[in-house]
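Summary for the steering committee. The consortium agreed at its last meeting that each partner would contribute one worked example illustrating the joint modelling workflow. Our contribution is presented below. We chose a case with several input lines so that the handling of multiple components could be demonstrated. No manual editing was applied between input and output; the record is shown as generated.
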Amino acid sequence: MGSESAVTAVTHVLPYLVAAYVFLVGCYGLATSRNLIHAVGCLAVCQSATYVLLLAVGYRDGGTAPVFSDIRPGSRPVVDPVVQALTLTDVVVGATVTALLLALTVQIAKRHGTVDPDELRELRG
Amino acid sequence: MADAVVVVALLAVAGLATAAVANRDPARQALVLAVLGTALAVLFTVLQAPDVGLSQLAVGSALTPLLIMLSVRKVRRRSAHGKDSKQ
Amino acid sequence: MNPRARLWLVVLGGGGLAALLVAACLRLPAFGGPWHPYGDRAVRAALARHIANTIASVNFDQRAFDTMGEMTILFAAVLGCVVLLRQARDEHRDPPEPCEVAAPVRRYALVVLPIALVTGLYVIAHGQLSPGGGFQGGVVAATALHLMYLGADYAALERIRPVEAFEIGDALSASAYLVLGFAGVLAGGAFLANTLLPYGTFNTLSSGGTVPLLNAAIGMEVASAVVVLLARFLDQAVEIEEGSGS
Amino acid sequence: MNGWILAATVVLAVGLGTTLWGVATGPLGRRVVAQNLSTALVCPGLLLLSQGYDRTSYVDLALLLALLGPVGTLVFARLLADELAEEQPRAWGLTWAAAGLGAVVVAVLCAVTGPGRSMVKLLIVGALLVGGNLLASRAMSGGFPGVSRG
Amino acid sequence: MHRLLPLLPAVPLLGAGLLVAGGRHLPRPVAEAFGCLAAATTAALAIVLLPHSSPALVEWVGGWFPKGGESVGIVLIGDGPSLGMAALVSLLTLAALAYSWHYFDEPPRGHAGTFPALILLFQGGMCGFAVAGDLFNAFVFFELMSAVAYALTGYRIDEAKAVQGALSFALVNSLGAYFMLMGIALLYARTGELAMAKIAEGLNAAAGHHGPDALTLTAFVLVLTGLLVKSAAVPFQFWLPDAHAVAPTPVCMLLSGVMVELGVYGVWRVYGTVFSGPGGLPAADVTRTLVVLGVLTGAVGAVMCWYQRHIKRLLAFSTIAHTGLFLIAVGVLKAEADDGAALYILGHAGVKAALFACAGILLDRYGTVDEFSLHGRARHLRGVGATFAVAGLALAGLPPFGTGLGKAVSEEAVGAPLTVVYVAASALTGAAVLRVAARVFLGFGPRPEEREGEEREEDKTSGADEEPETRQRLVRVPRTMGTVPAVLLAAALAVGVVPGFAGLVGHAVDEAGTWGVFSSVHWTATGVLLDLLSTLLAVGLALVAVTRPGLLSAPEWALPLRRLQSGHVGDYVAWLLVGTTLLGALALPAVLR
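What follows is the complete predicted structure of the assembly.
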């Protein structure tokens, strides 16, 4: 196996591995966070992993966007439009959920006087 | 070799994601998240998804940082307010 | 649980998850592969309906039902934020002091505001032709209004932004999307069927049947929703104070 | 692979690399500068990519970034005004270098595309990018003097 | 008729949109009546469609009917279970709206339509999830119902516990949803399709003779994680008591009554449609995974339920215990067990919603839901007390309630060893409710004493100082609030007694299932005896607990279990990761063969 095929093998899975890594990093940050706003940010990181995975799945070598305002249909190979639509949905969902979570965090800061999950001493048992 | 730019964008996203998790102060994290949004937009462009790139730019570079920074400001102002009243 | 125990759990659980994900990644089709059956069908379907931007066709025609759900999530989240960030019983409003802004920043904001607004509308209008659409353009247009806050102060922003009107606009445009869906059923076809209007000429603003209408409804919905969302957060960050007054 | 994409790769690698390093470490002021630079460096990269892929419609991305990037920086400058007032972050050398890069890229692309609608769009992007970038730097180093609350 | 399927989510969503647009200028009764109307229309629609669901209604939204077997659109499935779930959701929504009629304090002022609009959005999300036949579309509606549920849970922003519970709920469930989305992306990469039936075909084609591989396993685990987080299976369950104990009562009725069960329904639907073929997961491995989790869930839920004194929290844990029982029934992959689970879910929804409604009345009348401090205080609320006690008996499985029938049918299907779990979990949760009824409404037994010595962390969730949800404390119970639980209980009874109903449900579930078997569903002597056994056990336990409190107080070994419920969102996320790993480990033999 030459070094060139090793490189190809890496580029064949690298995007997926990056998505997996970003997802895991986000989960780690969420579990160990000491600040709820930071935790919400980590959740956003987790979500960006889903964007990367979806778009990586839909990519086609040498393809271009399936948008035919400036190219003739059929003149070039195109990538998968469906994953792009899914990701678009996902981006909007992510932004709105982030807003909701931040709204709850603001209220927690008001009612508990802290946003450190270690100091939230209710709801035990 | 055409993949070089994809690899660059992927590594940038991975690095920025790590930085976003590692920076525990929310204001600093918001800065990293803003740059992460830009890097994701680049990645989406090189993956030939300009539509997604546009929405990521719109959401990631101004909206999300603004929301986070407003929350940070509210939370900080609260704690500052609390300290004042204790004194 | 103490942080140490939690870290062990994270290592255990994360390790397992990492193993699963890596094993799955190695079995995925190679990155950049040529096999995208659904994608190829979607491109053909978009061209058949004279829509230049396939993503817009998937979003507003082929999978318009997903977009309906997504739009409703945005609508629900805004309604949720209105509820969650309302003025609590023990709070009062305290109008913020005017703020000084350096002259160049003020000029920049005032110049860029109209440009950003026009760009937002342009991105919405060209949704079914070039990259962009209701979501992207709506966010840009809404963000543009908030240049008023950056270039002047909160009072200036409040003058150009009647939140109530935007709340109603948000609800009305969300309803408009749904009504367009119902129109398909009333016309004897399927829900959200794109068969009511002619498909027009390829690569023009009026092409694609109901796609431009749904796109416009989404654009208005997103713009209003983002304005209301930011208004609630700005209220909290700038205006609403705790205690019964100081 | 063509020269444009190669150039974009280099610009993006350098740009994202330096901003990653800048935004993740050091004092707050430096991080805001890095965030501002990310716009200034990535935007030319996007323009080059659009040329490299031979897709004029991709220019919209650069337009949006040139428009919203500085707005994002202004948000940080406004809401972190108290912290930044102590640091007065300045990096005029870097800022001008980035602005110069943007100007050069826009000029080269204009020369390649020739007169027409695309050229107007490119010029708008260039103006927004350079103007926004310089202005945002100005705002960071004291554009919001009297922000206590509001 | 299939044309009407998309209206199930669309009608309530449009109702919500119009309510928000016009609600500002409407007086409250009009806004509430409009909300009820929209919910009732949807319910009527679902009920009208139900008789036509054999064979299943199939609708391609936007008229994208498949050409040559392939389509670019979204498919909706209207079979018995999906329409039944939609009908259940809609009827319970109607009950929740009726319960909150006029008395429920609904800020913000001047926005009369806000609360009914949120409830309608919740209904729309759940109906959409029920009829989804496309995996990504299911995810979208899953997110919709989650997002609305977060906002509704944190509705009372003046309460510290409410906002904290809502945030734990939101963070854990959002993360769960992203797990599901990762799984969907993997499935799309493998099969290039999103419709569930097409994904199954793709998996079968890809697997050939080799059976599932690591990718199928991971996708299965990830999708299942998202659904199990929603259905609060151990170890994903921590968010549920935190959220259900603090949410407004009408919302609790919906959360416990249907939302959690929709998670189980999702597991049934996704396994049955996507992973049950030769390219999916072998039955033995799925059974192992789901039954182990189900048994754990039932045990943990029942034990934790017994040791609560916060009444709403107690009910929340009993929901966890019953979800465990549903999971076991779904997990054994038998037609008869599916029928049992369906009946059990129907009966449980009525009973649990009635119990929450009664707890809400206590809260609004006395400003507390603490079993200890309420001791004997609610003697004169005879109607509410009777409803609460009967609902407790029904929860334990008293024949002829629908819960009893569902339990009996499930027990018969799952076999002897697992029957023990059913009897124990239903007896223990029923006993906890009966104990509360005896103490609060009858004043039986000695007044429970606060624990001596140092105050434990666990005592902070006593429920002693909660804000009533009405504008002022109720002096007498309004007719709407009193009637709703009684009607719900009657509905749960009807599930068990109306002749032929159980058979209809069973037939519809079997037809939609993948087993190709039709079983007959009816009361059997063994089933009735087992039901009576668990009811008697429940009554006995409750009596002992009330008269001799020392005998059954929390032993030391139960404390660590209670400590795990730490209220710390980081812990919950860590458990989520462990749970995913556990799922992977339990299903691993599928790929080793």
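Chain C touches chain A through 57 residues (CB under 8 Å). Chain C has a mean pLDDT of 90.
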